Each structure stands twice: as C-alpha cells, then as structure tokens.
Amino acid sequence: MQRDYESAPVSEQLGIHSVIAGLVSDLDQLRAGEISVNDAVARSMLAKQIFNGVRIYLNGAKVLSDNARAIEGKACP
Fold this sequence. Notes:
The chain is mainly alpha-helical. It has helices at residues 10-14, 16-31, 37-67. Helix 2 (16-31) runs antiparallel to helix 3.
C-alpha cells in the first residue's frame, strides 16, 4: 500500500520544517553577530546529521515497503 504523502507528509512526522526554520534562524543570528561562526558551523553540522538520519529512515522505509508481502491471503495494512 502506498503512503498518502498529501494528507500526512513524512516531513511533518520527522520535524523537517522545524530543522529548516532553525537553520534560517541560525543564519539570521550569524548575520546579526549574535552567534559565532563556530556556533553556526556546529549547528549546521548537527542539521546535516539530522538530514542524514532522515535519508536513512526513508531508504529503510522504502526497502521494507518494497519487500512487504501479504501473509496467508491477508492484505498488508
């Protein structure tokens, strides 16, 4: 069964919007001189790892979905 991305986007489930909003805020703070370059780099590296985890999650979900099959005539949910 295909996931309905329109009614329940995976980006909402994983909190991607808040990560992006955080990166925008970090850039604004860096430009305003409120955080150091090192702080900005550390925060961007953390975001990079979060996005890497999202990629792994999505790849794993796709593999599981592709390999799913019905058990003894029952449909997969």
